[in-house]
Design goal:
- The complex is a heterodimer of chains A (256) and B (792).
- Chain A is of the alpha+beta class.
- Chain A has one domain: outer membrane lipoprotein receptor (LolB), chain A, CATH 2.50.20.
- Chain A has three helices and 13 strands.
- A 13-stranded antiparallel beta sheet of chain A has the order 6-5-4-3-2-1-13-12-11-10-9-8-7, sandwiched between helices.
- Chain A is globular.
- In chain B, a hairpin with a 2-residue loop joins strand 4 and strand 5.
- Chain B starts with a helix and ends in a 17-residue tail after the last helix.
- Classes of the chains: A alpha+beta (256), B alpha+beta (792).
- Chain A: Keywords: Lipoprotein.
- Chain A: Pfam families: LolA_like.
Chain lengths: 256, 792
Amino acid sequence: MKKIVFILIVLITLGIQAQTSEELGLQIAKAAEQADLGFNSSTVNLKMTLKNKNGQTSERSLTTKTLELTDDGDKSLIVFNSPKDVKGTSTLTFTHKVGSDDQWLFLPSIKRVKRISSNNKSGPFVGSEFAYEDLSSQEVEKYTYKFIEEKGSLVVVEQDPVDPKSGYTRRLVTYNKDKGYRFEKVEFYDRKNALLKTLIYSNYKIYKNKFWRAATFTMKNHQSNKETILEFSDYNFDIDLSEEDFTQVALKRIGS
Amino acid sequence: MNAFKKAGNATNVFARSWANFVIKYKWPVLLAALILAIGLGSKGNMEFDGDYHVFFSKSNPELEAFDALQDKYTKDDNVIIVLSPSNGNIFTKENLTAIEELTAESWNTPYSSRVDAVTNFQHTSAVGDDLYVDDLSYESSLKTDAEILEIKEKALKEPLLVNRILNEKGSITAINITVRLPGIDLNEIPGEVTPFVRNMISDFKEKYPNFEVHTSGLIPMNTAFFESSMNDMGLTMIMLIIVIITTFILTRNIWSTLATLIVVLLSIMSAIGFVGLMGIKLTPPSSVFPTMILTLAVADSIHILVTMLQKMRKEGLNKVDALKEAMRLNFMPVFITSLTTVIGFLTMNFGDVPPFWDLGNITAFGMGMAFLYSTTALPALMAILPVKSKVKKEDTKVRKEWYASLGNFVVKQPVRLTIISLLVIGGLTYLASKNTFNDEFVNYFDETVAFRTDTDYIRNNLTGIYNIEYSIGSGESGGINNPEYLKSLNAFENWLNEQPEVIHVNAFSEVARRVNRSMHGDNESFYRVPDNRDEAAQYLLLYELSLPFGLDLNNQINVDKSETRVTVTLDNITSADMIAFSKKGEDWLKNNTPEAMHAIGVSPTLMFSKLGFRQAESMLTGNIIALILISLVLMLALKNFKLGLLSIIPNVTPVLVGFGIWALYKAQINTGMVIVFGMTLGIIVDDTVHFMSKFLRARRELGYDAKQAVVYAFETVGKALVTTTIVLLAGFAVLSTSSFALNSYMARITVIIILSALIIDFILLPSLLILTSKKEAVAVKNIKTTQVAFDK
């Protein structure tokens, strides 16, 4: 009898701990979301540099506009400035907390807006090492969480994507809890649970005394040895965009 | 001539004191030999490398071009799993579900980066202004019959699928797993990828027994290379048993059999140490080294032991005296024959195929060590072991008479025999020129290897396994969207499709056409490349944004969007046709496209096609050098310039005869056979050395005329030549059972060459000796020389 009681106690304790690690993970993700809340809207210029194994490079430049929404996922608009033959091509994305995102693309060459079936968001974004899912708004609901460890101010949380079409089994995210739970590093594990890529955030700057933004994202693919570097410049948090700036009409206007 | 005689005397004296020394210090000598062998052996490390890259030297231009192509796009090692459902229709709910399941499981293959199947094919369609890019069949188990019929229609119309992933009838399909190996650990394929794939397939077969499964691709080929190395290593045991039996039959003495066994084992142990010290990774061609060393090293011991036992049995010498005499008489011949064999094997370094460098170097080292052990450990052992032998009435008289009568037969009709021999050799030489190179890598394995039969099934039922790739540049960043480029690329694609040997073409122009059609509401009249650069670039951007993980275009387009990759799959064709086809494609580009688009064809299969030619070209110098060196050694050993020159005939003609007979047998030569000239030269030269030295001894010492000297040579050395030939034939016959054609063909032609060499040495050589001696006065007759070192 005593034995059974003991086992029960052990099991309950373990159960509590398991729950705790998941809850703790979720708690951290929510804290990070909370810390970044209230930026309303921003624009930023982005230079994307693709490097292959031999160090050959290729560049693209883009402008991104983001509108913060609280009841659903953020809306974003990306405009390509170069290469020349895709200049003006723009994408409009409505991320959703639950279900597939909506995405449209404006093609200036035919002056038409095309809706993209967005079941596939795990593929490389314009040939880079970033998948569309790596760049889209990080909504809390898109993952389940598990707290892994804490080292000083750094907290590591495992995130498992909810979407079955994701290219990953899990991501290991390192937050900096002293710096507004900003991301320091993300490790991506592919479908066979092998380390695929590492994303390092660097050159952080704080805007409006609250919002941490890294000026450099370095994504290294360990399997192909290719690398993509994103360099952000001219962050603007005072632009004060509204929903009207994120419609198909706006998409057409911006591109042409 | 005097200098040579002195040298001969000197070696004689040296051999005698060597024998005395070894017998006097038998224990220390044996111990030293053991320590040396164990010391070397302890450094031994046998690792197998199945990567097909090992067949190409670092400087091989085709390999460089292919690696450059893989760096630009993606490195594609693959496994093709071919599924044939028993109902002969892929498109049923059950079969599609099974395929979808296996496809999902395939993503778990270690190092996999991409999985292509009929179910996850990214089908593009347009509904109004929406572009849909989605799996051709997702969640197949929920599909209705009508939907499945629709999927079937789409699939069978899809140029990217038909003849690549799907056959025209829709009865057979493939799952292609692309694997990106880090290439750090030799165990990646044999230890990780292959076991995973095999398990996955056996689980699949259990769950879906209605599917027949075949596998091919570069990974299974790699595994086949690896496993055939292991198998060929296993032949060593068979050869070891043959060595024991042969030695026992020839010496009829258990102790000498034991001593021989120890000598060959020490030689192999040392060679294994050499492999470890040099960091050599074993491959199918080089993994036969233990059998080679066994075969060649045993001859050394047999020569010494047979003489020793003869001296004891026939002449009644005591053990030590017989041993000393055997050493004295055999030291030089064993040295010379070892030297020529080493030279022969070292010439493999002139070739362009690294596994043969390894085979040559390991065997040469092993032969050097075999010489050392045969002249140290062997006599020491024989001095220690309680060898007893009674003086026997020999029954060899009968056999001796047989050799003598063969000699007499030759002596009676040298002119006729020479003419007949030369006619036969001439005819076979003519036939030899009819052989053609064919290095179809699939045929490297015989039908006992599953990789071969599975690959044959795939190429007969689904698609080709020979391909050629062209990386076609546009000359500018983003230039692949230039309509001029796309039109030329499209024209190239069309031209390729028109060629009768082409089964499938995968070109970026097809993607451009397909997306253009979808951007125009799936209107068939827009199934052509876009006319406007911005349009093409923007469509491509849209399309790329729609592709899922692992199914992107990075394997077809470089990062700069300045080049695309065209992959042509070809029907079963020979190496020569393959090379010609690749050239034809290059020429078409030169004649029909701007300069930036000119490209050379590359691929592993093409590299193998060119391997034989490249090897033959580079081995030519090596063979000439081997011939010159070995002829020089012979001139020195025989102390006769004329006979050294004459020896070229019986040394070269067996190879011509061998390839002539081969033309009647297979008429196809592979890379493995290119090395046989140098290698067999080093081996067959022994016959000539022994025969000529006996002939010379009879002329110089015994004062015989040419005819008598020939009969004498037959009597004294005939049996020894036959026995060593039998040992060699046994060794190479064992190797000829290898399932790996580079080894088995090489061994088979070596069997023919060694046999021809013996016949030529018994028929043509004596005839020539008589004919050439006639003109010469009997001047040499009375010159007394001390005993020539080649005696028995």
